[in-house]
Amino acid sequence: MKDSLPEPRLAAPLYGHQAAVQQFEESFASGRLHHAWLISGPSGVGKATLAFHLARRLLGGSDLSSPAGRRISAGTHGDLLTVARKMDPRKGQLRGEITVSDVQPVQSFLHHTATEGGWRVVIVDGLESLNRFAANALLKILEEPPPKAVLFLTTSSPGALLPTLRSRCRPLVLSGLGGGDMRALLPDLPEEILQRAHGSPGRALFLAQDRDGICASLVARAMAGEELDHDNWVIISRLARDADGFALVCDLLGEALAARAREAACSGNLALAAGMAERTRRLGQIRMQSERFNLDKAEAIREALALARSGPED
């Protein structure tokens, strides 16, 4: 059963996002290629995959079997640098943020001569994870770009970025993949999950982790205003120990709160719609703080589910 996707560095061919590719190709063909591209879109839609696809285009590695293509796949190409959240060896999980020490190598990399005489490319994956110092360091780099250098910056939350950082980038806004591309990428997933993923392959795989429906059941009971019993607390404790349990509950709960907000707005109940939107915002804060500061996940799940059970006045 195909229930995984290739790493963005290894993905070929590219599914979807042809409009974004065309924008880039037109800029490239004009001879005035912009030095920084902000690739935004829903989580799991393929932003990093597109970034590597465009990097391969610049570095002559579109053919994965070519020498440049193999070096990109192996992570050994001298003219490609990637920046993302790093693994914390003590905790065995990704760190909550990208720090200034992660960004600092970009400056020296971009000011060295390209090892293969062409472009130098930097991919920063997950721009919303930059802490304040890292964001300022990256901004300085964008303000003084060297020639023959391109940065591809990905984010699921462009509104959370520094306006000055966004203004120095050319946007590539990605939408969800079509049904044909989704089925081609994930042929063994149920159609119901593909539909709920709204064109995001990563989200489809994420939703498929709730194979027994435990997370969905918890969220449904909370949204119905039910009090959770002892058995549910045992389940929550188990989910908190799972690598993706907390994130999955938050994702499903956020989807449910947003749907409730839309229903309220369509029926003219603007006060309820505003209340649901505020709970969605608070859920995002709970998730961000818990993941960034490695807080107790069981307590965070309880706090998140309590948002659904709060009364209208809350």
From TrEMBL:
Entry superkingdom: Bacteria
InterPro entries hit by this protein: DNA_Rep/Repair_Clamp_Loader (IPR050238), P-loop_NTPase (IPR027417)
Membrane-spanning parts: none
Pfam family, one: DNA_pol3_delta2
Protein name per the record: DNA polymerase III subunit delta
Organism: Bombella dulcis
